[in-house]
DNA sequence: TCCTTATGTGAATCTGATTTCACATTAGCT
DNA sequence: AGCTAATGTGAAATCAGATTCACATAAGGA
C-alpha cells in the first residue's frame, strides 16, 4: 500500500472521516487508534503527528459531527421557506443520516462521551441543545407566519422531533437494519403534522 | 472492612446491584471489575466465584434491568384500569427511573451493548421491543374499551412514548441533572394526551 | 466437632490498547 | 539541486484492566 505524505490539515480531515467510517461499520465496538490508522494505510504512530492523542482526535470528530448536523439544517432552510415542509425535510434527511452515518448515534451514546471528561459531555450537550434550538427556531418562524399553530410551544415540538429521530436511530441500530426506519418516520410525521398544524 | 462469605445467589444479587449503583454514579465511565469489587469490599478475584467473567456479569445486569422495567409496568397495570391513566403513570414512573437509575440508559447506550457480541445487542433489542410491546398492549386495550381513539396505531403511540422518555434520559444525563425532566414530561404528556384521545 | 466445599484473597499473568522515540523519507521552498 | 521541516515508520515502553491460580478461611452438613 502506497502511503503518501499529506499536509496535516488534509490528513486531519481524512482521519476524522476514517474514524466515522469505522464507527458506521456495525462491526466496530470501540474506536481504536490502530483501526483508524489501518483504514488509511498508516502506522498508528502516524496519527500522533496530527493529533496530540486519542482524545484530541475524538474532539475533532465531535466537531465534525456538529458541522454535519448544522449543514444539514442549512440545506433544509434553503430548500423551502415553509416551516412545516422544513420539519418534514429534516425528518427525512435525518432518516438518511441514520442509515448512512451510524457513527453519529454511536458517538453520542458512547462511553467516550460519558466517560471521564466532564468537559466532553458538556460539549456534546451543547451540540445537541444547539441543534434543538435550531429546530425550535424553525417552529417559531413558522408560528410567526401562521404556518404552525400558536398554542404548542416551539420548545416542545423540537423535543418531540428529537424524540422521533433518536429512538429511531437506536432501534435501527440495535436491530441491525431490521427496524422499519422509514415506516417509523412516516408514522411519526403523520402525528407530528396533526399536532403542529391542526387545532 | 469486614467481608463475610455469602452464598452465591445472594452475592450475585449484590454484585448486580453494586454494578448498577456504580453506573448510576455520574462519575463512572465504564464498568470496571475492580470498582464493582471495591463497592462490595471484595477483591476483584472474588467476583469470579460468582460470574464466569465480566461478560456473564453484564448479562445478569441486563436481566436485572429487564425485570425492573417489567415490574414497573406490572405495578402500573394494577394501579389503574384506564389506559390513558396507565400511560401517564408510566411516564411519571419513568421519570423517576431516569432520576434514580441512571444506570439503565447508561447500559442501554454503552459500548458493552454495541461492542463485539452481536448476541448481546439482540438481547437488548428484545428487551426494548418487549417493553414497547407491553406499552402497545396498554394502548390496544384502551382502544378496545374506547378510551383511546381508534385511528392512531397503537404501535406508533408506543414509539412516541419511547420517544418522550428516551431523549429525556439522554438530555438529563448529559446536562448532569440540569435539564428540566419533569417539565419535559409534562409538556410531552399534554401533547400525547391530545394525540391519543382527541380526534 | 470435624470435613468438605464454597467463598475470598493477593500476587502474578495475560491481553489489548495507547503512546513515545529514534530514525527514515518526502514535500516543498530557495 | 540542496536544505529543512513536516510527515511517516517500527519497535519498544507503558498502562489499564481482566483473568488465573495457589493458598486461606469460614459455613454448614454429617
Polypeptide structure, described:
Two copies of one chain form a homodimer. With 199 residues, chain A is mainly α. Chain A has two domains: 1-51, Orthogonal Bundle (Arc Repressor Mutant, subunit A); 55-197, Tetracycline Repressor, domain 2. Chain A is 75% helix and 0% strand. Chain A has ten helices and no strands. The first copy, chain A, has helices at 8-24, 33-40, 44-47, 54-79, 83-100, 103-109, 111-114, 118-144, 154-174, 181-197. Chain A is elongated. Chain A starts with 7 loop residues before the first helix and ends with a helix. The mean pLDDT of chain A is 89. Chains A and B meet through helix 6, helix 7, helix 8, helix 9 and helix 10 of A and helix 6, helix 7, helix 8, helix 9 and helix 10 of B. The first copy, chain A, binds a DNA duplex (30 and 30 nucleotides) through helix 3.
Amino acid at each position: 500500500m502506497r502511503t503518501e505524505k499529506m499536509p496535516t490539515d488534509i490528513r486531519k480531515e481524512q482521519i476524522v472521516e476514517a474514524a466515522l467510517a469505522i464507527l458506521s461499520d456495525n462491526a466496530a465496538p470501540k474506536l481504536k487508534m490502530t483501526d483508524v490508522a489501518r483504514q488509511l494505510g498508516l502506522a498508528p504512530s502516524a496519527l500522533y503527528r496530527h493529533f496530540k492523542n486519542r482524545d484530541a482526535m475524538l474532539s475533532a470528530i465531535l466537531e465534525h459531527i456538529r458541522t454535519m448536523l448544522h449543514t444539514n439544517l442549512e440545506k433544509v432552510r434553503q430548500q423551502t421557506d415553509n416551516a412545516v415542509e422544513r420539519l418534514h425535510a429534516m425528518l427525512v434527511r435525518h432518516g438518511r443520516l441514520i442509515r448512512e452515518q451510524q457513527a453519529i448515534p454511536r458517538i453520542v451514546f458512547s462511553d467516550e462521551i460519558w466517560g471521564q471528561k466532564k468537559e466532553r459531555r458538556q460539549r456534546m450537550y451543547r451540540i445537541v441543545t444547539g441543534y434543538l434550538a435550531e429546530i425550535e427556531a424553525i417552529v417559531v418562524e413558522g408560528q410567526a407566519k401562521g404556518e404552525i399553530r400558536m398554542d404548542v410551544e416551539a420548545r416542545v415540538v423540537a423535543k418531540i422531533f428529537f424524540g422521533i429521530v433518536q429512538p429511531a436511530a437506536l432501534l435501527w441500530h440495535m436491530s441491525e437494519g431490521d427496524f422499519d426506519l422509514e415506516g417509523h418516520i412516516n408514522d411519526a410525521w403523520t402525528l407530528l403534522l396533526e399536532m403542529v398544524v391542526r387545532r
